[in-house]
Amino acid sequence: MILSELERIERQVSSLLRFSRRDEFVFVELDLGELVRQIVLDLRPRLENSGIAVEASVDGPPCCRADREKLRQVLINLIENARDALGGQSAGQISVVAAGANGRLNVWVNDNGPGIPDDALAKIFEPFFTLKRSGTGLGLAIARRTIEAHGGRITAARTSGSGMSFRIDLPAATCRTSRSFPLPSSLR
């Protein structure tokens, strides 16, 4: 129990430090679709062990100029938040969709959990606001700051029925390197 509490405190201090300092961004040509697929492949075993189905969908080669690690952290945070919201719910589902159109890229992270109460929805990107018992309230604030540093926006909305949908909107770019990453059948 002491070790798990120390880990929790370490994560909170790390989040606070990450929020308080101004990050340096290293913008590179990035295939956002490849990043989405890789994150889902990496997180799938843990999610499925929690009884949560996860799928990824990529439409076209969504390219942008971005800091790969920073966007990776944002997407993992959104998926982990969705997992926490599902809380072991049977038939829990998370989908991550990346698509580009009209010079913009969009990534949606959707879940079929209980959603966020309407009165809290307007505050979820504010620093130190949390609905979690052991949360710091910094994850979504850091995500917003990161996406805004990329010239984009992040929004959240309740889905019809139940669940949440987080949408990241970024400026698109043309990738000069055309790497093809086939979508594994398990992600189609």
Tell me briefly what this model is.
The protein is α+β, with helices and mostly antiparallel strands and about 190 residues long.
Topology:
Blueprint: H1 2-20, E1 28-31, H2 32-49, E2 52-59, E3 63-66, H3 68-86, E4 92-101, E5 104-111, H4 118-121, H5 139-149, E6 153-158, E7 164-171
Parallel strand pairs: 2-4
Antiparallel strand pairs: 1-3, 4-5, 5-7, 6-7
Helix pairs in contact: 2-3, 3-5
Describe the protein.
With 188 residues, this protein is of the alpha+beta class. Helix content is 38%, strand content 26%. The strands form 2 sheets. It has a 5-stranded mixed β-sheet with strand order 2-4-5-7-6. Strands 1-3 form a two-stranded antiparallel ribbon. β4 and β5 (104-111) form a beta hairpin. α2 (32-49) runs parallel beside α3 (68-86) and α3 packs antiparallel against α5 (139-149). The chain is globular, with a radius of gyration of 16 Å. It starts with a helix and ends in a 17-residue tail after the last strand. 30% of the residues are buried.
Give the strand tally. 7
CATH level 3 topology: Heat Shock Protein 90
Structural class comes to: alpha+beta
Q: What is the helix fraction of residues, given as a range?
A: 25-40%
- Encode the helix/strand succession as letters: HEHEEHEEHHEE
Q: How are the strands of the largest sheet arranged?
A: 2-4-5-7-6
Supply Rg. Answer: 16 Å
- Could you tell me the mean pLDDT? 85
Highest-level CATH class: Alpha Beta
* Beta-strand percent range: 25-35%
